[in-house]
Write a structure and sequence with these properties.
Blueprint: H1 2-7, H2 13-29, H3 37-49, H4 53-61, H5 68-80, H6 84-96, H7 103-112, H8 117-133, H9 140-152, H10 156-169, H11 177-208, H12 218-235
Helix pairs in contact: 2-3, 3-4, 3-5, 4-5, 5-6, 5-7, 6-7, 7-8, 7-9, 8-9, 9-10, 9-11, 10-11, 11-12
């Protein structure tokens, strides 16, 4: 009953406080059953939704022998709270506790570090080694999180490399609708950046050309062709000309 009441709480710091209060109340009423793993796990999830990551860690620490669901919930709470360093340390703790790592757990850490492209890519590469040791590979969600971080940071060369690696590692992604949308986003971002480079080059070229002439110079045409060929090479498609 208590676990259900806790799980029904919504998002917010007040809900996290209420979740902890209910756990403490349950333990005072049934000390022989304390700690109640189901109630604690539900409370940790509520804390994650409310960004109360410190409360989540305190609840985790209250359980002498935490099980897999509690580990997962606690990592999820750190991820939702965007506590990147803490999420990374907690994943390392799980690894040393001999928990089998998988793509879902790794993606929680990547999501916690979103907004820091360099950090996300570095963690992706490190966790890629950890997964290999466990006989696993990054899943589509891991690749997607890393690629989106690179797109947001305009590190499109790394984004393109990760995208090609993902398609090579899992052929099923070739028909995955979400990954197709991600490819479209990457293509648009890369095209936009290339276009900006071309426009900048053209504006400089026009300034240096004969006044009043609107015809593009040979240098401008050559630059436009280079951009088109560059896009074709990056994505493995035929140029449009």
């Amino acid at each position: 009953e208590y676990a259900s009441r806790i799980a029904s709480l919504k998002k917010g710091a007040d809900c996290a406080t209420e979740a902890v209060r209910l756990v403490n109340q349950l333990h005072s009423l049934e000390p022989e059953n304390a700690p109640n793993r189901f109630a604690v796990c539900a409370a940790v999830s509520v804390c994650g939704r409310g960004g109360a990551w410190e409360m989540a860690l305190e609840l985790f620490a209250s359980v002498p022998e935490p099980d897999q669901p509690l580990y997962h919930s606690t990592l999820g709470a750190l991820s939702k709270s965007r506590k990147g360093s803490e999420a990374y340390d907690f994943l390392g703790r799980m690894r040393h506790a001999s928990f089998a790592l998988d793509g879902f757990l790794v993606n929680q850490v990547l999501l916690a570090n979103q907004g820091d492209c360099e950090r996300v890519v570095s963690l992706f590469r490190e966790c890629e080694v950890w997964l290999a040791e466990a006989g696993a590979l990054p899943n589509a969600a891991c690749y997607a999180t890393a690629i989106r971080s690179c797109i947001e940071a305009r590190d499109l060369a790394t984004a393109c490399t990760l995208f090609q690696e993902a398609k090579k590692a899992d052929q099923a992604l070739n028909s995955d609708s979400d990954f197709e949308k991600l490819e479209e986003s990457l293509w648009k971002a890369w095209s936009r950046m290339r276009l900006e480079e071309t426009l900048l080059f053209c504006s400089r070229d026009c300034c240096s050309s004969t006044a009043g002439s609107l015809a593009p110079s040979d240098r401008t045409v050559t630059k436009a062709l280079e951009v088109e060929l560059g896009l074709a090479a990056d994505f493995g498609v035929m140029p449009s000309f």
